[in-house]
Amino acid sequence: MPSQFSILVIDKDKLSGDSIVSTLRPYSDSISLAGSVDSFTDGDCAMQRNAPNVVFLGVEEIEQGIKDVQCITLKYPMVSVIACSSEKNSEWILALMRAGAVEYLLRPIAQEELKQSLQKVGRFIFKTPSEETPAGEIIAVYNPIGGMGTTTVAVNLAAALAEEGTKVALVDLNLDAGDVNTFLNVNPTYTLSSVTSNIERLDANFLMSVMTRHASGPFVLTEPLEVDEAVSITPEQVRRILEFLRGTFSYVVVDCVGQLAGCNLAIFGSSNLILFTTTLSLPALKNTKRYLTAMGRKGFNSDRVKLVINRYLPKSDIQIKDAEKVLGWSVYQAIPNEYADVVDSINKGMPVVKLLPRSPISKAIQGLAERVKH
Ligand SMILES: Nc1ncnc2c1ncn2[C@@H]1O[C@H](COP(=O)(O)OP(=O)(O)OP(=O)(O)O)[C@@H](O)[C@H]1O
Ligand SMILES: [Mg+2]
């Protein structure tokens, strides 16, 4: 069992909560108790104060349970939730896991199961010394609305970082309209859903066997081809996949879009860098302002969230310094508008940085890659 593992118990059923605490007492040198409370409000305070790794959450009613799990995973993306209940119904298990719980324990909780569930969670949070390799950097490329060039930036950044044998993964987590496949003209046999449906087998060998290496360098993991398969990917699964990739690759570039919730929060929670990609139009900047503020409220600040201006035209009405002033955020990198080169690259299924390395857009992306490398 890893050291410095801290747990919080939130359970109205006092007996059940106490039994978890007493089962784990003999392991107090490796597991510390961040609290044991009987209401969600008290639990929330304890999470804020003590930032536990794992929360055992007692569930009496399914709707409330789902809400509570979602609330915890949204607010505290790094917390793993283990649901505990007296209900055997498989619908409950599925619904709670989909909401973001990592495990489901049936009361009365057997000592062995409790330990196993913690060991499983621990594997994803901690590494044993023999497994220790320098952790890779996770870079999310994000715009909530889409159409601003996140895929263009993600695909090209991944290819630029993959120079000189650096191991790079490119993950399309644009779950219902991903287009990394199209940009790279690949049609992989395995997708994210192959990984999530085999999540228990997740290890470095399995991951490498399902990822496709693109000629431009990065190993790609893309969205499921069937839209309905994407729905079943949970934030916890996303987090596990990313943490695993971090152990194998030096850089993991993630293409993501959509609301500040669920899987996106899991991605951001794991990310070292979030490249918020936008253009310099008024509506785009208005949305950028709203989202940067909301991200700041969730703890994703300018030390992690960097602004990338795509389709930049030096002669546009709105200049970079205007945007910086309005947003209160400095621009990390501007990527010029080079429509013909981008379209040529998409049609050929090869990133611009490889196809046309001397194009101004390629130079800017190479600059971005240098900056990411520090
Ligand atoms: N720097 C650029 N210069 C010129 N055109 C660009 C540039 N970046 C992107 N584009 C164009 O904008 C289109 C949208 O870009 P892209 O698909 O990368 O955006 P996205 O944010 O991933 O969109 P989606 O919401 O569809 O996922 C591309 O098809 C491309 O033609
Ligand atoms: Mg896209």
Description:
Helix content is 45%, strand content 19%. The longest helix is centred in the C-terminal third of the chain and has 16 residues. With 374 residues, the protein is of the alpha/beta class. It has an eight-stranded mixed β-sheet, with helices on both faces. Strands 2-1-3-4-5 form a five-stranded parallel β-sheet, sandwiched between helices. The protein is built from 17 helices and 13 strands. It folds into two domains: 125 residues, Response regulator (Rossmann fold); 236 residues, 3-Layer(aba) Sandwich (Rossmann fold). Bound molecules: adenosine-5'-triphosphate and magnesium ion.
State the CATH superfamily name of the largest domain: P-loop containing nucleotide triphosphate hydrolases
Roughly how much helix do the residues carry, as a percent range? 40-55%
Secondary-structure-based class equals: alpha/beta
**Order of strands across the biggest sheet?**
8-9-7-10-6-11-12-13
The strand count comes to: 13
Task: Please name the CATH topology of the largest domain.
Answer: Rossmann fold
Distance linking N and C termini: 35 Å
Question: What are the key terms here?
Answer:
Rossmann fold, 5-stranded parallel β-sheet, alpha/beta, binds magnesium ion, binds adenosine-5'-triphosphate, 2 domains, 8-stranded mixed β-sheet, 374 residues
Give the topology, please.
Blueprint (H helix, E strand, L loop, with lengths): L4 E6 L3 H11 L6 E7 L2 H11 L3 E5 L3 H14 L4 E6 L4 H10 L3 E4 L4 H15 L11 E7 L6 H12 L6 E5 L7 H5 L7 H5 L7 H7 L1 E2 L5 E3 L5 H4 L4 H14 L2 E7 L4 H9 L2 E6 L3 H16 L7 E8 L7 H8 L3 E6 L2 H10 L3 H4 L4 H13 L2
The site of magnesium ion has 5 residues, from helix 6.
